């Protein structure tokens, strides 16, 4: 450090080296002398014990002078050294900056040289169609240009010129590569507007040329390898293969998968290469089988693999590129093959098309064909194995193979979908086409296996389900639990058969499949519950015939739901076999649905009936011709309405429901008539006669509306039982008697509150009727006095 300071000071020209050394040497001698004297004094003071106070003070003064000289010299040295050091550092920094600038310029010149050499080699290789070398040299030039851009302050116009040249030459190379690619894989395609049917695809052709070689080869030509490798180096291979894959899917693979009559033909043309074209062969099949699809697809992909895609490409590093060591042989060693790129681009869409256009339609329609589907699964495995060998496919479990292996699930889903569609179609069909249900009517149910014919578990289940024997030997009648004779919609019978056949498909199926099918059957009935009342709402209110049929339909379904679960429970896998298979919870809803539908129709008929009776002018002043005519018309209309309903519901409703319905409506009519008559305050003799005629008409013709059966002779029984179904029938007959009776006859039928008249009317009602019928006389007063409640 001391020598460096001295040199700096010497170079400054302000302090001579010899002068500084002399002063330091002189000062050093003074220090040594002072040190010896101080040591001597100290020795005499502490060792010899000689008093030397004066000598010590003199020495102290001398030491202080020497110290001051040292400080002055030190200050001088520091001032000179710091000033000259700062000057030296500044000059050194300037020299360093100048050196760095020179180094940068040299590096930029070197990169410009590399850029120029690379572009020269690029043009030379491009003329010789050495596309791999061209691509690598272009990448090297791009790397040099990027290096130039990294320095700040570089000439912008020059960089723009280099970038522009680089872009132009890259596009030039890509154009040449694209042109070569088009010559190697030549498409002949139909116009897009003509893709309206199978015949338009017959114009599709793909020619794979030999790439300059004259003899057919079993591997892609060298030129193709160069083109693909060059595209990979320039980052354009993915885009080029993507465009190729889109055309391949649209014009070759998808048509072959979709149309069963389309086939692919591969022909070798002498000196021109290989031609793939589509041919049409008539076939009755609507959808191709999986084996046909796999065969056609493999023919196309194997041909492409052999003549076009069996080429390995690598991402070449620019650092490894040199003009001397780049050759076509470099292409053979790579990271992945072009078939891998194409496979990644087409597999998802192609497998999706195979699933929806082929495998979906190959799913069996019944469970007995499920075992045969193992052939399709094996074919799918072989298909994927072939694709993996050609490196079109990577990975083990694909969506295609998963779909084929999940046949039980897809079978159940397809079956459920078909069943729901068929069920909805039946629900929205016409209801008026009916079939007659009798105790002998039975649904066609597939034969089910015996509960104990399987394994021990089945035998134990069957043993558990055996009912204990009843000690009482008397049994219920054969028809005790049968549905009464009625008519239901033919579509409902078909709907129930559909449910039974669906449940029979669940027998012997896997637990998941059986559960799905079982709940589909439940969904059928829940769909009926929601759809039919809404879809047919207007007709159910407008047409009494349809309302009666809907009532029967609901009761018919409820009747079968009671035992439907028990009928299949022992044949279904767990947990359905353990008691989960039941439909009993749906029974109350269906019964309520049928009852509400029919009651709504009865209310409509009741409202029409009351509206007609309201035109009778309250049955008052019937001695007037117009009033009598209106009343008579209203009565005739009511009877006609009842007869029409009786005919419409004949042989449709069960006999007991028919009689109750007709009895309710007839009871409504006569109740209204009784109420109107009882409200009259004055009934003349002529009015009473007219009222009697009208009421007598109802008594005579009312029972005739009870015709539940087509055979007239069998209806007499129900016509005689009118009082059973019409609550006010006896009351009405007593009223008719009173209208023609005299006071004595009325009193006699009252019989002090114990007669038949007293059973139907109270004393107040009878007194009011007597006052309306008879004038105020002593005889009437006597009669009124006898009308008392017992």
UniProtKB/TrEMBL annotation:
Q: Which GO annotations describe the biological process of this protein?
A: cell division; endoplasmic reticulum to Golgi vesicle-mediated transport; mitotic spindle assembly checkpoint signaling; protein transport
Q: What is the lineage of its organism?
A: Eukaryota, Metazoa, Chordata, Craniata, Vertebrata
Q: What family is this? A: Belongs to the ZW10 family.
Name of this chain's protein = Centromere/kinetochore protein zw10 homolog
Short name of any one Pfam family annotated for the protein: ZW10_C
Q: Where is this region: Disordered?
A: 440-467
Main location, first listed in the record: nucleus
Which parts of the sequence belong to the Centromere/kinetochore protein zw10 N-terminal domain? Answer: 27-119
Keywords linked to the UniProt accession: Acetylation, Cell cycle, Cell division, Centromere, Chromosome, Coiled coil, Cytoplasm, Cytoskeleton, Endoplasmic reticulum, ER-Golgi transport, Kinetochore, Membrane, Mitosis, Phosphoprotein, Protein transport, Transport
Membrane topology value: Peripheral membrane protein
InterPro entries assigned: Zw10/DSL1_C_sf, ZW10_C, ZW10_C_2, Zw10_middle, Zw10_N
State the oligomer form and interacting partners. Answer: Interacts with NBAS and KNTC1/ROD; the interactions are mutually exclusive and indicative for its association in two different vesicle tethering complexes. Component of the RZZ complex composed of KNTC1/ROD, ZW10 and ZWILCH. Component of the NRZ complex composed of NBAS, ZW10 and RINT1/TIP20L; NRZ associates with SNAREs STX18, USE1L, BNIP1/SEC20L and SEC22B (the assembly has been described as syntaxin 18 complex). Interacts directly with RINT1/TIP20L bound to BNIP1/SEC20L. Interacts with C19orf25 and ZWINT. Interacts with ZFYVE1.
Q: Where in the cell is it found?
A: Chromosome, Centromere, Kinetochore; Cytoplasm, Cytoskeleton, Spindle; Endoplasmic reticulum membrane
Where in this chain does the record put each Centromere/kinetochore protein zw10 C-terminal domain?
481-611
Q: Domain (Centromere/kinetochore protein zw10 middle): give its ranges.
A: 177-427
Organism annotation: Hucho hucho (huchen)
Annotated ZW10 C-terminal helical domain ranges read 633-787
* Record keyword Endoplasmic reticulum present: yes
Query: What's an example GO cellular component term for this entry?
Result: endoplasmic reticulum membrane
């Amino acid at each position: 450090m001391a020598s460096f300071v001295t040199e700096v000071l010497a170079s400054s020209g302000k302090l001579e080296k010899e002068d500084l050394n002399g002063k330091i040497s002189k000062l050093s001698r003074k220090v040594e002398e002072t040190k010896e004297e101080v040591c001597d004094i100290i020795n005499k003071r502490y060792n010899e014990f000689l008093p030397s106070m004066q000598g010590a003070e003199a020495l102290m003064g001398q030491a202080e002078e020497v110290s001051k000289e040292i400080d002055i010299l030190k200050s001088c040295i520091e001032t000179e050294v710091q000033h000259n050091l700062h000057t030296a550092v500044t000059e050194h920094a300037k020299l360093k900056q100048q050196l760095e600038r020179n180094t940068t310029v040299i590096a930029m010149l070197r990169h410009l040289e590399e850029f120029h050499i690379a572009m020269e080699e690029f043009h030379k290789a491009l003329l010789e169609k050495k596309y791999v070398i061209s691509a690598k040299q272009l990448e090297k030039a791009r790397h040099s240009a990027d290096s130039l851009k990294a320095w700040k302050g570089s000439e912008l116009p020059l960089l723009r010129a280099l970038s522009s040249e680089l872009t132009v030459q890259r596009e030039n190379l890509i154009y040449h590569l694209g042109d070569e690619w088009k010559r190697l894989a030549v498409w002949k395609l139909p116009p897009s507007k003509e893709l309206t049917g199978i015949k338009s695809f017959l114009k599709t052709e793909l020619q794979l040329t030999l790439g300059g070689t004259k003899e057919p080869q079993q591997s892609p030509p060298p030129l193709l390898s160069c083109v693909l490798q060059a595209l990979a180096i320039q980052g354009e291979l993915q885009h080029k293969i993507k465009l190729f894959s889109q055309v391949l899917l649209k014009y070759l693979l998808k048509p072959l998968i979709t149309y069963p009559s389309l086939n692919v033909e591969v022909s070798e043309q002498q000196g021109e290469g290989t031609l793939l074209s589509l041919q049409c062969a008539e076939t009755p099949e609507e959808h191709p089988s999986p084996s046909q699809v796999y065969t056609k697809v493999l023919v196309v992909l194997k041909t492409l693999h052999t003549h076009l895609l069996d080429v390995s490409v690598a991402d070449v590093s620019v650092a490894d590129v040199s003009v001397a060591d780049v050759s076509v042989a470099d292409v053979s060693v790579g990271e992945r093959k072009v078939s891998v790129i194409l496979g990644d681009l087409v597999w998802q869409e192609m497998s999706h098309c195979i699933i929806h256009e082929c495998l979906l339609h190959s799913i069996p329609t019944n469970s007995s064909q499920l075992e045969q589907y193992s052939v399709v699964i094996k074919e799918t495995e072989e298909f994927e194995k072939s694709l993996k060998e050609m490196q079109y496919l990577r990975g083990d479990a694909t969506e295609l193979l998963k779909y084929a292996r999940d046949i039980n699930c897809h079978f159940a889903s397809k079956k459920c979908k078909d069943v729901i569609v068929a069920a909805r179609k039946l629900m929205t069909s016409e209801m008026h086409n009916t079939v007659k249900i009798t105790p002998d009517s039975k649904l066609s149910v597939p034969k089910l296996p015996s509960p104990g014919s399987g394994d021990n578990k089945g035998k134990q289940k069957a043993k558990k389900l055996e009912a204990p024997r009843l000690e009482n030997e008397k049994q219920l009648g054969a028809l005790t639990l049968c549905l009464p004779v009625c008519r239901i919609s033919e579509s409902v019978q078909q709907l129930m058969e559909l449910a039974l056949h669906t449940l029979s498909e669940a027998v012997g199926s896997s637990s998941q499949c059986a559960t799905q099918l079982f709940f589909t059957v439940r969904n059928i009935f829940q769909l009926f519950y929601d759809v039919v009342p809404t879809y047919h709402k207007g007709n159910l209110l407008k047409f009494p015939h349809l309302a009666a049929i809907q009532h029967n339909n609901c009761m018919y379904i409820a009747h079968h739901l009671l035992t439907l679960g028990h009928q299949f429970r022992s044949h279904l896998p767990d947990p359905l076999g353990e008691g989960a298979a039941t439909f009993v919870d749906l029974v109350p809803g269906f019964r309520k649905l049928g009852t509400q539908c029919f009651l709504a129709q009865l209310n409509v008929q009741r409202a029409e009936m009351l509206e007609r009776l309201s035109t009778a002018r309250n049955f008052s002043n019937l001695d007037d011709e117009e009033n009598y005519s209106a009343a008579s018309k209203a009565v005739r209309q009511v009877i006609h309405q009842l007869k029409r309903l009786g005919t419409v519901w004949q042989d449709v409703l069960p006999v007991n429901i028919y009689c109750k319905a007709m009895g309710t409506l007839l009871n409504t009519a006569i109740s209204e008539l009784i109420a109107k008559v009882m409200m009259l305050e004055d009934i003349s003799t002529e009015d009473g006669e007219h009222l009697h005629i009208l009421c007598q008409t109802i008594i005579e013709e009312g029972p005739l509306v009870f015709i539940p059966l087509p055979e007239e002779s069998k209806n007499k029984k129900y016509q005689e039982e009118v009082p059973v179904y019409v609550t006010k029938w006896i009351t009405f007959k007593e009223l008719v008697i009173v209208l023609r009776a005299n006071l004595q006859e009325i009193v006699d039928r009252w019989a002090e509150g114990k007669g038949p008249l007293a059973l139907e009317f109270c004393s107040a009602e009878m007194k009011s009727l007597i006052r309306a019928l008879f004038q105020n006389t002593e005889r009437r007063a006597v009669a009124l006095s006898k009308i008392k409640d017992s």
